[in-house]
Write a structure and sequence with these properties.
The protein is built from ten helices and twelve strands. The strands form four sheets. Strands 5, 6, 7, 11 and 12 form a five-stranded parallel beta sheet that branches. It has a three-stranded antiparallel beta sheet with strand order 1-2-9. Helix 4 runs parallel beside helix 10, helix 7 packs parallel to helix 8 and helix 9 packs across helix 10.
Amino acid sequence: MKVSLRFLCVLVLLAVITTGCRKEANYLNLPDLGGVFSVYEKDLDFSNEISGRLPDDDDDVAFQEIIDVFSGTEAFAPSGDKIRGWGLKRSPNNQPPVVDPGAAELLKKYGGKYIGDTSKKTIYLTFDEGYENGYTPKILDVLKKHNVKAIFFITGPYLNQHQDLVRRMIEEGHTVGNHTVHHPSLPTLSNDKVEEEVLGLDRAFKEKFGRSMKFLRPPKGEYSERTLAITQKLGYCNLFWSLAYDDWYRDKIRGPDYAYQKVMSNLHNGAVILLHAVSKDNADALDRIIRDAIAKGYRFGDINELLNE
């Protein structure tokens, strides 16, 4: 029986996928097996971010209490993993926050980061780019004006639909991080699916820009010891944050002063600042935040410095 060349190629490709070769370095040289370039924003769910579980409340005490309650809940994935939600309790007087009990130690065990050297006045800007809301060009303009480098965590649809902005990020010296293809809660996935969500995006990114990603930000701020172990083995540094506020709303504009006060009142040595790029408030406040943080003696570091700490 005559077998077509195309059929043989498909068989070989399936063999590669099912034999565990995905962990080899050359796996990233394969084409877009994860279908990244056919995924769009409408295919993803952004309604259940960890920060989205928190109220729109100016009362920092209430904000902290709800984080504490959520962090202590016993949620388990089908695999039996405990699903952990990254939570912080803010500290007064520009001191580093308190994180969930045991979380810092677990993250360190698997090479993850959430804060830099707290003996130095160095801070790091990170932006989550699940989808584009029109403010990233302005953010990039401000960063270029001040010669500040940031990391932008993108999803599959973002890479698919906004390659011009991703290219600009790279050309202007910023780092592009992995926020997975479909933005799922990683602990709810099988090992193979975790790998595909992470490496699928990495492959597509390398196909377009000739480089691989180093940092992963788990979607929804959800993780488990299993997902930390898997992604570390894939060569990733899981990067969480030590400063964030309720900036995820795309339809609630409270003004740049709100964003400015939330960031500046919680700045601390080694801060890894999470900002959502969908926020007009963040885009409008960023110039002032950078200028005044520098005036207070802070230096904006390159996120890659954390790999050596």
